[in-house]
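Figure-free illustration: sequence to structure, shown twice.
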Amino acid sequence: GFDRALEEAYGGDPCPETEDLVSAVTAPLEGVVRQRKGVSHRPWNAAPKVIAVTSGKGGVGKTTMTANLGIALARLGLTVGVIDCDFGLSNLHVMLGMRPVHKLPDVLSGRVPLHDGFEPGPEGLRVLAGATGSPELAELTYARRSRGGVSTENLKRIFDIVFLDTGAGIARGALSMLT
């Protein structure tokens, strides 16, 4: 189960803080994983989760944590999406070895539907790449994000769990992803 996925993702005995974080994220999903075995659709009695991986400080491992948790949960059969919300230095797709065709601004502008903006990544993970240095995203607000279709409610219709890999700091664009 989750212990095996954690072992595979972190390669050994992770620090207690990592185990606490993984337990907080995965404990509510254990029933979903059990129900998924032999069931080909989402059990609608289980509430999907949207979780922001965030910090005011850069270089603390937000992207690494997002990628590893996403892959570990996807390996367990959950439908997992990740969105790179670092609008200054988007790099989640690079870490995952991807060359995305679509990025977040394509979805926000309506050029690409939300579901199609998420591209296949490792182990069944679905990735919506961010855009580096995008003026359009620098001042992103919740209202603008929702009008573009990237709302929590829309994400919950597609995925069991979504991770938001936020940028560091307290700029409006970074904070808008936390609402």
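We now fold a second protein in the same way, so the two outputs can be compared directly.
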Amino acid sequence: MKSKKSRILLMAVLFLVSTVAAFAETAKSDVAAAVSEGKSVTLEYSVSLADDEVVFSTAGQEPLTFIQGSGKLFPDLEKALEGMKAGEAKTVELSPEQSFGPVNPQAIVDVEKSKLPPQAHQIDAMVTTTDPNGQTFRGRVVGLEGEIAKVDFNHPLAGKTVFFKLNVLQVN
């Protein structure tokens, strides 16, 4: 009789342990992963200016996937994403120093019009040039004075406060 009670007690304990383990595993899988260093993060985002003009959006495009902490995003943007979970959204304001940088006056250069294609002889025309190392730069004509064109090679968002609207889609 004692052995029958022992077996029943042992089976009850084993059942209880397996039930608790299964519950713990279910509870662990129900906890959504949070953005943290080394995690793969997929998100949709848009970038807008203070006047709400959207200058870029991933809407209708492939969302961005990156590894948190890899340095692919602005550091303050990564900090803002830290701890977010799939389905969460927020807007982050970044100053020029936190994002595309201030306007660098040295990146606005005088170029002889004769060195530009004819279609670039107008304000807001885009030009492309390559330096001796093969690096390509895009600039925008911002001024015309006689035979000289002023070309701005700053990033188009340099000197501007930008607003990133973030929507976390997945965290692994």
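Summary for the second example: The longest helix spans residues 2-30.
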